[in-house]
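User: Before I run my own analysis I want an independent prediction to cross-check against. Here's the chain; please return only the structure tokens and, at the end, one sentence I can use as a sanity check.
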Amino acid sequence: MANNRQSVELAWFAALCDDDYEFLGVPDEDLQSSWLHCSDIVRRAETNGFDNVLLPSGYSLGIDSTAFAGAVATLTNEINLLLAVRLGELVVPQLARQIATLQQISNSRLVINAISSEMPGEQLSSEARYHRTTEYLYVLGELLEGREVNIEGEFLQLHIDPPRITGQGYGCPPIYFGGLSEAARDCAAASADVYLMWPDTTAKISSVVLDLTHRAQNFGRKISFGWRSHVIVRETEREAREAARKLLSRLDSATGDAIRAKSLDATSTGVNRQSELRSAADDEGYLEQNLWTGVGRARSGAGIAIVGDPDQVTAKLNELADAGVSAFILSGYPHLKECDLFARYVLPQIKHAPLSLTHAPAVLHDHR
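Assistant: Structure tokens:
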């Protein structure tokens, strides 16, 4: 039965970036990202009652998230679509027109996961990349709100009117954004509505919530918090741990290293922190009783799973909610199977609903 806590948002993950396995590191043609497979995941997440679904984006892996969002919006009715956009690869005025169009197609169910990416092959310092992202998100928000933009920034010099479609009342969707470095935190505080965190100890999560709350307040903004992790839930803890062992049973270290190295963010502060947590885990990969770091042996990004029986998984999510997390983006391998298991065992125990947010205008501040 749902508890008396405030509602949280529960989202699933559509593996558009070739990140679906029965055995980590062992490619499976049936689980490779495709329109048919990934749209099945999204529709299953809606049928199971999830509030939102992340449509991830990678340059070299998988299928395009924006084209996918336009198509899957016509096959769904209730679930929000959290579209990942790699800002370094996009022209902002065109992105504004795409997002406004997707809002029309989806009946305003689109939300944005902004990724502070580089253009493939480009090399920027972390500080410069996040400074550019701050400018991009400011301009994107202004255009989507139907406002004229006049900016002479370090990276963007634009004097333009908004595209016509942005005047139809959709506005700028809430912006979800993550990044652990100092530059990333400042960008999030100035630009984001939901700050996404990869798994960590609850004490660390609490300290990040406090830090970002203060940074956002310095810009006159409020910010909510999200947690992105994997989950393995079974009727008993023993069965859940056995499922975790099975997931890694065919992975060799060289394959895991190669998979992690493919990611364009393989040297980021957040990825380094996931590596630190993996090094601090016990021999079976457990950082805490129900936090398992094994996924990170074959994944560059979020590399920790909540592992346990229904009560243990629910308790961990409630613990994180009490620490300030109001949105959870979860995934599991294979994604269809784990989506069903989580929906059966955990979803009914948690009071959940889509986050009720409107985009707070981004603040453009001079970094130079």
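Sanity check: The mean pLDDT is 90.
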